[in-house]
């Protein structure tokens, strides 16, 4: 099961008629849950896949008979289409395309109004983008391992209100550290994903000698379904506002414009919103 949506322009999506809509709504919600890698107790209840904590681990339920889902904590529920909208934070049209792409691909030409050749081209573009996300996910794990060796950076994060436990592991993002001249990451990505993908991450300058984009910075990831799609970095020593370094990874304009419209990333630590990493 692919994790991300094919990016169609609004003009490329036709009105989804009742016939197609009903066919998509008939896709068993259990198949969707399984394909997304969501594990539920007894197959129908468990933790909410949106990631929030659940005391009894049973707040999220699905009904096979009615083909519906419900989360008592989130106050969210509805059809399988609503489930995709809820989990992927996307529009109804995008949710329908996701379901068609992964379960009823024969409907894609009718829903989008595009020729099969164009859909194949978009799928290839999507596949390439997903390999970049996989490389970025490997990269942030590498940065995270380096952060755990960087006492000064950890002290700075703690001074900003982040607990040691949160820095090491949290459900919102992965926090890392990029050293001044570390090119070992490039070698690792080169070996695992190939040169084109390593360069496509945007993590390196490649004109002349390969040098890292993030240097001596705390790095924070933006993730969807545990796949890193974007990163931002900032200096952590106490510099004046004019001297502070703030860098944004320029690999996906859609993600950048939708998620990072402001130059800040606020995350929650111990359910208290007072920790601003990128400011």
Summarize the structure in short.
Helix content is 39%, strand content 19%. It is an alpha+beta fold.
Produce the secondary structure layout.
Layout: H1 18-25, H2 29-35, E1 45-46, E2 60-63, E3 68-71, E4 76-78, H3 80-88, H4 92-103, H5 108-112, H6 116-147, H7 151-159, H8 164-168, E5 175-178, H9 184-193, H10 195-200, E6 204-205, E7 211-212, E8 217-224, E9 227-234, E10 246-248, H11 253-259, E11 265-269, E12 272-278
Antiparallel strand pairs: 1-2, 2-3, 3-4, 5-8, 6-7, 8-9, 9-10, 11-12
Helix pairs in contact: 3-4, 6-9
Description:
The chain is of the alpha+beta class and 279 residues long. 39% of the residues lie in helices and 19% in strands. The protein has eleven helices and twelve strands. The strands form four sheets. It has a four-stranded antiparallel beta sheet with strand order 1-2-3-4, covered by helices on one side. β8 and β9 form a beta hairpin. α3 packs across α4 and α6 runs antiparallel to α9. The longest helix has 32 residues. The N terminus and C terminus are likely disordered.
């Amino acid at each position: 099961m692919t994790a991300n949506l094919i990016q169609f322009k609004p003009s490329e999506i036709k009105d989804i008629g009742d016939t197609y809509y009903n066919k998509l709504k008939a896709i068993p919600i259990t198949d969707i849950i399984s394909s997304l890698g969501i594990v539920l107790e007894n197959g129908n209840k468990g933790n909410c896949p949106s990631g929030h904590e659940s005391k009894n681990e049973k707040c999220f339920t699905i009904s096979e008979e009615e083909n519906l889902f419900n989360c008592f904590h989130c106050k969210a529920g509805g059809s399988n289409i609503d489930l995709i909208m809820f989990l992927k934070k996307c529009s109804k049209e995008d949710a329908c395309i996701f379901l068609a792409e992964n379960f009823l691909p024969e409907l894609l030409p009718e829903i989008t109004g595009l020729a099969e050749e164009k859909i194949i081209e978009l799928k290839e573009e999507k596949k390439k983008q997903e390999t970049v996300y996989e490389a970025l996910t490997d990269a942030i794990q590498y940065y995270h391992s380096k952060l755990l060796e960087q006492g000064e950076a950890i002290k700075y994060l703690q001074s900003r209100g982040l607990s040691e436990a949160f820095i090491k592991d949290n459900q919102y993002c992965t926090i890392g550290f990029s050293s001044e001249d570390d090119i070992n990451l490039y070698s690792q990505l080169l070996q695992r994903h190939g040169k084109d993908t390593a360069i496509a991450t945007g993590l390196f300058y490649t004109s002349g000698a390969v040098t890292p984009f993030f240097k001596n910075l705390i790095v924070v990831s933006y993730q969807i379904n545990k796949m890193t799609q974007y990163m931002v970095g900032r200096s952590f020593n106490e510099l004046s506002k004019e001297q502070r370094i703030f860098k944004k990874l320029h690999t996906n304009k859609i993600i950048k414009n939708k998620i990072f419209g402001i130059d800040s990333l606020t995350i929650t630590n111990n359910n208290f919103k007072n920790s601003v990493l990128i400011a």
